[in-house]
Specification:
By secondary structure, the protein is an all-alpha fold. The chain has a domain at 3-67. It contains 4 helices and no strands. It is flat.
């Protein structure tokens, strides 16, 4: 007979409002912590993808620089780079510099009429 009152007391304690409120608060806190971990995982994944893209870009730049260094180690490559940078010519060569003409149409000024002259222009065909 003592088993029944003890079981009733235990079930009464588990189903009390205070216990249920504490359990609900614990569940909310745990779910919030899990949500924050999920958000941090997504953010770190985005950072990782950005870092991988940067690594790929740096690798392509490294390869391009290695090719340029290899070209500059040859005499033809050095000569081509000097000609491109400083616009020089070898002795006996002639150099032509082409300059493009300026745009002349942009400097054309459009005359403007005053408000009074535009008003009289409306009536001139009627008067003639």
């Amino acid at each position: 007979m003592r088993v029944l009152p003890r079981k009733k007391r235990t079930s009464r304690w588990w189903y009390s409002r205070l216990t249920l409120l504490v359990l609900a608060v614990v569940v909310v806190l745990l779910s919030r912590a899990a949500w924050n971990v999920y958000l941090k995982e997504r953010e770190s994944g985005a950072h990782m993808r950005a870092a991988e893209e940067k690594v790929v870009g740096l690798e392509t730049r490294r390869i391009a620089l290695e090719k340029k260094i290899a070209a500059l180690k040859t005499t033809e490559g050095m000569e081509a780079e000097i000609r491109a940078q400083f616009q020089v010519a070898k002795p006996g060569e002639r150099m032509v510099v082409v300059i493009e003409p300026k745009d002349i149409t942009a400097s054309t000024v459009i005359p403007t009429q005053s408000l009074l002259s535009r008003f009289f222009d409306i009536f001139r065909p009627i008067i003639r």
